[in-house]
């Protein structure tokens, strides 16, 4: 919103027609009749500030009674994320990581370009829903393929470090937004890069664990040889022996996996198994809360940032920059002092810094500007939530046993997106007058999360649990396993 007020009729003075509010600013949604001296809602449209050439708000007059529609479009985008996580992400288990990522990127790019030519708000919002629908499968599958490319001993660095690209993307978005003040042009510019990934069709390898799990042994052998060649390594020939049976024939129930692991599938686990035992139930509920809290606070702070005092482009850019050191710190400390203590620290840091923003005045009694201090506190809060968010992802991949890990992470992602859906509405409900109230609310949520994280176990330097019995009793017990165990 570049600022707006009712359009002033020709030959009329703005000071005579537009009433002034208690702060000395022109009312945004009322106009005064010179005949009756009564104020009425705007009837001839609005006049907007010149900060932007065009935004969806100025183009479709999403102000006054319709101002909720701006945040509604963001919420519908997050709803698309939720449906995508639930319905489309599992496609990567069937069709492979590589082609799900690439095909979704290309489709998303095409929809993004179409969005730039939206003729009305409904078309814009519907297309944004589909952009969000593809966004979560791209993000989650990318995270999966990165974790599958590295052995457990080296996995924490890339699993956390990959999130730096998100912060870099925010910085680029702030720069692009500063120089491109027309929303349609900006939408085109941020959509076209999706198609640069066409070259990945030749260079991005498929996940070897996925290929082996789906009995595509020849392709797995090819990828392994390619990796060895790139890294100038030699692979022992016995590791490249391809089974003689049909390469793509899936094993039947109870059949062993060609000697890769001599186990049988004797039981199928469901989401309900996450709640049947005390320890696993506690871990599950805490992780569900943390994923919801991380999401609502991260996206809430992100959506609230442009409403903070100061330059909105600079605020967004800084919010992206502070993510990078948070993730770099995470990469180094989680291998030294573990996961739990850094997670608690980042949660409490974010919570406390967001809460204190409400106690920092915009100016002192002597007129000294303290906006910079408010922004600093909010950005430190963003620093904290970035670290906590990234650690929650890593924690979830390590705390749940193999037999229910896919169910747990999938359901956690559902709660993550519920938090993302609610974030725009929380910001909208307090926009204009109570700018810092959302930050305080997010801060309280984070402090509660930091407290709950104290009841989680440390997972650093511990083998991944395979069965529910290992979680409950702390020892390996013979228990049925599922096909997921082969990964």
Automatic annotation (TrEMBL):
Keywords: Membrane, Transmembrane, Transmembrane helix. It comes from the Eukaryota. SUPFAM superfamilies: MFS general substrate transporter. PROSITE patterns: MFS. The chain crosses the membrane at residues 99-117, 123-145, 157-180, 192-212, 283-304, 316-334, 343-360, 372-396, 408-430, 436-456. It is found in: Membrane. It is a multi-pass membrane protein. GO terms for cellular component: membrane. It holds the Pfam family Sugar_tr. GO terms for molecular function: transmembrane transporter activity. PANTHER family: SOLUTE CARRIER FAMILY 22 MEMBER. This is Major facilitator superfamily (MFS) profile domain-containing protein.
């Amino acid at each position: 919103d570049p600022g707006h007020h009712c359009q002033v009729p020709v030959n009329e003075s703005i000071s005579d027609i537009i009433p002034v509010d208690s702060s000395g600013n022109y009312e945004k949604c009322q106009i005064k009749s010179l005949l009756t001296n009564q104020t009425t809602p705007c009837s001839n449209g609005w006049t907007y500030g010149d900060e932007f050439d065009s935004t969806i708000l100025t183009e479709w007059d999403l102000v006054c009674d319709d101002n909720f529609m701006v945040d509604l479009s963001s919420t519908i985008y997050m709803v698309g994320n939720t449906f995508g996580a639930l319905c489309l992400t599992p496609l990567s288990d069937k069709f492979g990581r590589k082609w799900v990522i690439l095909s979704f990127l290309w489709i998303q790019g095409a929809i993004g370009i179409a969005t730039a030519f939206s003729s009305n708000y409904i078309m814009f919002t519907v297309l944004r829903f589909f952009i969000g629908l593809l966004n979560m499968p791209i993000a989650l599958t990318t995270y999966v393929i990165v974790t599958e490319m590295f052995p457990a001993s080296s996995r924490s660095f890339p699993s956390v470090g990959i999130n730096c690209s998100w912060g870099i993307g925010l910085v680029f978005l702030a720069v692009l937004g500063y120089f491109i003040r027309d929303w349609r042009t900006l939408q085109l510019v941020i959509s076209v890069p999706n198609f640069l990934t066409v070259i990945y069709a030749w260079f991005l390898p498929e996940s070897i664990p996925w290929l082996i799990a789906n009995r595509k042994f020849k392709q797995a052998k090819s990828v392994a040889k390619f990796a060895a060649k790139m890294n100038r390594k030699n692979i022992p020939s016995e590791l490249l022996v391809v089974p003689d049976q049909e390469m793509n024939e899936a094993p039947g129930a109870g059949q062993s996996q060609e000697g890769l692991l001599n186990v049988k599938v004797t039981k199928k686990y469901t989401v309900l198994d996450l709640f049947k035992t005390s320890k696993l139930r506690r871990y599950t509920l805490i992780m569900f809360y943390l994923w919801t809290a991380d999401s609502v606070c991260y996206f809430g702070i992100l959506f609230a940032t442009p409403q903070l005092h100061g330059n909105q482009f600079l605020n967004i850019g800084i919010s992206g920059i502070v993510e990078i050191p948070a993730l770099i710190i995470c990469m180094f400390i989680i291998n030294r002092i573990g996961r739990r203590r850094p997670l608690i620290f980042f949660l409490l840091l974010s919570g406390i810094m967001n809460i204190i923003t409400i106690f920092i005045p915009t100016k002192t009694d002597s007129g000294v500007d303290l906006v910079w201090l408010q922004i600093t506190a909010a950005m430190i809060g963003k620093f904290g939530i970035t670290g906590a968010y990234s650690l929650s992802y890593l924690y979830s991949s390590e705390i749940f046993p193999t037999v229910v890990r896919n169910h747990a992470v999938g359901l956690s992602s559902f709660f993550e997106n519920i938090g993302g859906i609610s974030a725009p509405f929380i910001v909208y409900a307090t926009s204009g007058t109570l700018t810092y109230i959302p930050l305080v609310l997010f801060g309280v949520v984070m402090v509660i999360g930091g407290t709950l994280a104290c009841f989680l176990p440390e997972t650093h330097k511990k083998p991944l649990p395979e069965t529910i019995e290992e979680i409950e009793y702390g020892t390996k017990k013979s228990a049925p396993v599922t096909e997921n165990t082969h990964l």
